[in-house]
Specification:
112 residues; 0% strand; mainly alpha
């Protein structure tokens, strides 16, 4: 019974690891690249998950589930990365706008 539990724990740890690495990779892609960068990353992650499943003699169901988890985590990470990029850009833009307003002269209206 103890060995069966260790096998399940190892599988869960593998799923968590693949999910977190995919999430972080997606966040990096989201901050640096456009959406087309996700396509080769998705293919690479699918191949890695399939190779891992074959190398560790996992069943077909677990291998497909691992690949689906990796792809979903990559896409969620990409969306989070894009959100972070735009939030940082908006913060910088509002900081620049307030800085430029502080140093400007008051607006004088022309009398009609």
């Amino acid at each position: 019974m103890d060995r069966a539990y260790q096998g399940d724990a190892r599988t869960v740890l593998t799923f968590i690891t693949f999910g977190l690495i995919s999430l972080l990779a997606g966040m990096v892609l989201g901050q640096r690249f456009k959406v087309l960068a996700v396509v080769p990353a998705t293919a690479a992650l699918s191949l890695m998950a399939t190779g891992f499943g074959v190398a560790h003699s996992e069943g077909l169901g677990r291998t497909v589930l691992l690949a689906a988890l990796a792809v979903a985590s990559l896409q969620i990470g990409y969306l989070l990365g894009v959100g972070i990029r735009y939030a940082l850009a908006a913060t910088r833009a509002s900081g620049l706008q307030t800085a430029s307003l502080r140093g400007s002269e008051p607006v004088r209206h022309i009398a009609h």
